[in-house]
Amino acid sequence: MLADGVASLNAAYSIMMALYHRDVHGADGQLIDVNLVDPLARLLEQSLLAYDQTGEIAQRTGNRWGISAPRNTYRTKDDKWLAMSASSPSIAVRVFKAIGRHDLVDDPDFSDAQRRLERLDDVDKLVAEWVAQHTLDDAMAVFEAGEIAAAPVYDVSQLVEDEQMIAREVFVRVDDPDLESMLVQAPVPRFSGNAGIVDNLGPALGAHTAEVLTEVLDLTDAQIADLCDRDIITLGRNAS
């Protein structure tokens, strides 16, 4: 799904650029070449640069990142998870203060960004042990008070119930004749002048079969009925 999503986004803005080029500059139309691999390669970012300049080959590190510490997901006392990113030195210092390790604030082995990376495992362990002693709500309360970049790792039930998601109407419920209703994602992005809407979940299977066969292939009603009788085609709920 990642490859499909990233490729579709690249295709969408490529189409807009081609239309702009055509309409504004009077150019001809263009054939756009977008596959599943090229857009993903664009996301490699640092690992490509590091390999080209140093020969270093990135290895699997889970949710950690070797150029920032602490940066990981941590399990809480109530068996939930939170994610933290202390990418700047000031945030890392605030983390140490928040977890009660004021002694590390003035310790260059932990306060200095580069020296702290040399002790990445130690830093990660300190934070993990502290988080493991607190519930998610308690840990988040401490980190929010300390202005630390941390957030709960949601499952889908928590995501749809998040007050910010609800306030922004990120998910909308759409009526459906077969399913009664379904919760789906609202359009992204939002435009100030036009509100995007989702008013249906798509036509039923075969809903336009008769329309295509009559208008495109010039089949008669009798021919279409014969195809249905022989189970060659199926007419959807909305077909006439």
TL;DR?
By secondary structure, this protein is mostly helical.
Structure commentary:
By secondary structure, this protein is mostly helical. Among the domains are: 2-43, no CATH class; 71-153, formyl-coa transferase, domain 3 (2-Layer Sandwich), CATH 3.30.1540. It has twelve helices and five strands. The protein has helices at 2-25, 37-41, 46-54, 89-98, 108-111, 113-117, 120-132, 136-145, 156-161, 163-167, 209-215, 221-229; strands at 71-75, 81-85, 150-152, 171-176, 180-185. A three-stranded antiparallel sheet has the order 1-2-3, covered by helices on one side. A two-stranded antiparallel ribbon has the order 4-5. Strand 4 (171-176) and strand 5 (180-185) form a beta hairpin. The longest helix is centred in the N-terminal third of the chain and has 24 residues, at 2-25. The radius of gyration is 27 Å and the shape is elongated. The mean pLDDT is 91.
Give me the secondary-structure topology.
Blueprint: H1 2-25, H2 37-41, H3 46-54, E1 71-75, E2 81-85, H4 89-98, H5 108-111, H6 113-117, H7 120-132, H8 136-145, E3 150-152, H9 156-161, H10 163-167, E4 171-176, E5 180-185, H11 209-215, H12 221-229
Antiparallel strand pairs: 1-2, 2-3, 4-5
Strand arrangement in the largest pleated sheet = 1-2-3
| Tally of alpha and pi helices | 12
CATH class of the domain at 71-153: Alpha Beta
Mean pLDDT: 91
Q: What's the number of extended β-strand segments?
A: 5
What form results from the Cα inertia axes?
Answer: elongated
Strand content: 5-15%
What structural class is derived from the secondary structure elements?
Answer: mainly alpha
At CATH level 2, the architecture of the domain at 71-153 is 2-Layer Sandwich
Q: What distance separates the N and C termini?
A: 36 Å
Biggest sheet details: 3 strands, antiparallel
Tell me roughly what share of residues is in helical segments.
Answer: 40-55%
- CATH fold category name of the domain at 71-153: formyl-coa transferase, domain 3
Low-confidence stretches: none
CATH superfamily of the domain at 71-153: formyl-coa transferase, domain 3
